[in-house]
Amino acid sequence: MAPTFRSLAVLTGQQPARLLAAVKGERPEGLFVVALSAGLRRGELLGLRWKDVDLDCGQFAVTGSLQGTTRPTLVIGSPKSGGSGAVALGPAGCVCPP
């Protein structure tokens, strides 16, 4: 059986800014900021943990992905992309202190 693919809805134009304005000050604001700026998959976003965040270096690592369909079956597994990747939290050119 051939795999099936879902079409993706992509935000364009002013839609990302309008979405961020709508969630400003709300609990999931940070999740939406990371989602729009880092381009992570849903499971990778929901699999982020504080141990993956390095505020001194201004980056986080994608080390896992939330997998499962119901609360009892949820686990953090490997991301689809394989290894972990570092994602900058700030503007380009930030350098991690020694």
Please describe what this structure looks like.
It is a single chain. The longest helix is centred in the middle third of the chain and has 10 residues, at 29-38. β3 and β4 form a beta hairpin. Helices cover 24% and strands 16% of the residues. α1 runs antiparallel to α2 (29-38). With 98 residues, it is α+β, with helices and mostly antiparallel strands. The strands form two sheets. It has a three-stranded antiparallel beta sheet, with no helix packed on it. The protein has a two-stranded antiparallel ribbon with strand order 3-4.
Count, helices: 3
Order of helices and strands: HHHEEEEE
End-to-end distance, in Å?
52 Å
Poorly predicted runs: none
**Structural class assignment:** alpha+beta
- As an assembly, this protein is single chain
- The portion of residues assigned to helices is 10-25%
Q: Biggest sheet: strands, sense, closure?
A: 3 strands, antiparallel
* Widest beta sheet: strand line-up: 1-2-5
Mean pLDDT equals 82
**Gross morphology:** globular
The number of strands is 5
Radius of gyration: 16 Å
How much strand content do the residues show?
A: 15-25%
